[in-house]
């Protein structure tokens, strides 16, 4: 845990007592703050009280005595309308911050030179974050990974000289971190997302820009117009920028040329790595992720040789285009994190001869946008509530069956792929939420892995989760 010593002796109000909120309250108390916390959920209040955290309805506290207000990132700050607690804090001019802001203040106070890489973007940030942490870890560096992936940032070990922090940041977390100042900050891409919480695409982009604008080295993917303009603004302001592209050569920066990642500088180019043999970094989207990871790692002193070693041994992100098993010429891939069509597109574009398991609780737009990728699908196996709607979209373009459950779909897909003389992939990439049949996409992915492990003659590439099929 990181004790929030920069708040010692200060009264801090906190709203939101989920996992990160509890971690934040513990950190503040360990640092000597006077914490008063609340939540809209009585069960969360009871749990916090059981841990000795002082709980009190924030509607009735004296806000004039409050130094800082810590808001959970899941609670609306601006849209569709500010949470009632935000209005109370603003009425008394109390700063509103989140756990990432507390972390950056602790780093500045105790180890301002310890390397800190922060990652954001609409798509790819979890893979990029995990990849950076892997490269740093296998190179022997003391590495802490957290934020919007894995552990809450304040549960990490405290900042100290030589300790590297790799922190994934959502737009909600950035909005609550006004002095965010990573050594290297990554903005991968921007497409419409979370507009219910940000109001407009421009506001969403403005929030994301703050992460790289405050960075010692900004690493920006420039394949969309929003990010291209952001890179230009940061550079005009006099800050160093490394541009990254998966689509086009660059005069300065890193770009993908097929599976090769090329570094360009002053007219000269060199190949950093060829990802052709990687099973966990397939596709142009992963070329962008890898290029951004390379740029950030090199910005904090990692050598090209160390980067190459890390890329070669990267095991992939769980539930995201994750090869989990192999039987003969058939590979089984867990892409359960693909909860909408856009998220499923990278996997469908990265494999040939796909036996595709999809379905669940459908999102707006369904899978119509994936039609250009249907030729890569040998057969589809439809599960969950979306089955009949998706069957209508597939029509005559793709052979399909309505399997109903994941267990039946995998059984039939494995059998059909085994009978196919060509190398093929059994792919779980649902393009749907899981909630009609599973608690979350992680449980769905674990169920897929467990079912793959139960097949005869399978060679597993990952550990089998406990808890059954």
UniProtKB/TrEMBL annotation:
GO terms for molecular function: UDP-N-acetylmuramoylalanine-D-glutamate ligase activity. Belongs to the MurCDEF family. Transmembrane segments: none annotated. The keyword Cell division applies. Its main location: cytoplasm. It is found in: Cytoplasm. Cell wall formation. Catalyzes the addition of glutamate to the nucleotide precursor UDP-N-acetylmuramoyl-L-alanine (UMA). It catalyses: UDP-N-acetyl-alpha-D-muramoyl-L-alanine + D-glutamate + ATP = UDP-N-acetyl-alpha-D-muramoyl-L-alanyl-D-glutamate + ADP + phosphate + H(+). Its EC number is 6.3.2.9. It comes from Peteryoungia desertarenae. PANTHER family: UDP-N-ACETYLMURAMOYLALANINE--D-GLUTAMATE LIGASE. This is UDP-N-acetylmuramoylalanine--D-glutamate ligase. HAMAP family: MurD. Residues 319-432 form the Mur ligase C-terminal domain. Gene3D superfamilies: Mur ligase, C-terminal domain (3.90.190.20), Mur-like, catalytic domain (3.40.1190.10), NAD(P)-binding Rossmann-like Domain (3.40.50.720). It comes from the Bacteria. It is an enzyme of class 6 (ligase). Pathway: Cell wall biogenesis; peptidoglycan biosynthesis. Keywords: ATP-binding, Cell cycle, Cell division, Cell shape, Cell wall biogenesis/degradation, Cytoplasm, Ligase, Nucleotide-binding, Peptidoglycan synthesis.
